[in-house]
């Protein structure tokens, strides 16, 4: 079904255009800014201080922008209901940007909190309305995840207001693991399909609904453990939960694997990001069992390798497909994928013996990776489809 016409610039034709571009630009600057602030080189006071800003904004700023852009665009293909276009997309993108500026420049809480809180529920409403119109029950869990993310943000903002930074941390970390759940849900659908299409195979690997449902339920359980604070304290009884989830994701990866995927950057980048998700879960199991260094290391395996890795892979593909272009990314994107994956061991392991070296090198790899996306894809996201179709 065609998109509704809009007189606004093509940037606001569909949700992925402004949110992928803005989210990636934010990623380019946010991590180097955080590292500079961490080492005392920045004279600025964001809301709640730099650690609270970093913890919140990499999830509810960067991560949520890409999730929202993807869902606001994909919902049309899933349901046949026209996606938001024009003014609603402009307003949502403006609301997201306002939240980022208010956080960074330490706006008063009475202004920051309602502005920042509004974005996710509005996205959930837009997605929910489309799904309800066609009674597409199989995608209702996505609305549930968006509402849970909204609740996590509410708790994080309450923590900010009360200067209760334990509560703020609970909300932000729980949201990261909810995004991991979305990675499992959406990745479980698109990775085998993209692999089949990209390699010209007969058909994608058949899904195992029981495993899929168990992994989704486990992701929600992990998020609830983080939200309550229980998951932030090493406890041997929690180790089997993370271990089973990690092994479940590895089983999926092994079933999806095909040797030829390593010749296609848009495929190996997706598979590798999913592998980091599995490794992050196993690292959490080891941490709870007392056999792995720290919670921060496990969290950054997920945040950089898993979340950011899948984001970069997905936006590189979706931005081509939804603008009517061949699925052939610029050659430089292979370097971007390599650099982002290199940032994981630099941040997780090298930063332990050499903090400044590890942090700065990881920051450089991260910023260059997303900078390459912005450089090569901004002209695509700002230009009409070459086939003349809307979108």
UniProtKB/TrEMBL annotation:
Gene behind this protein: nnrS
Name by which UniProt lists this protein: Protein NnrS
Pfam families (UniProt xref): NnrS
Ubl conjugation is among the record's keywords: no
Keywords of the record: Membrane, Transmembrane, Transmembrane helix
InterPro entries noted in UniProt: NnrS
Record-annotated membrane-spanning stretches: 20-39, 59-81, 101-128, 140-160, 172-194, 214-233, 266-287, 299-320, 332-352, 358-378
First and last residue of the signal peptide: none
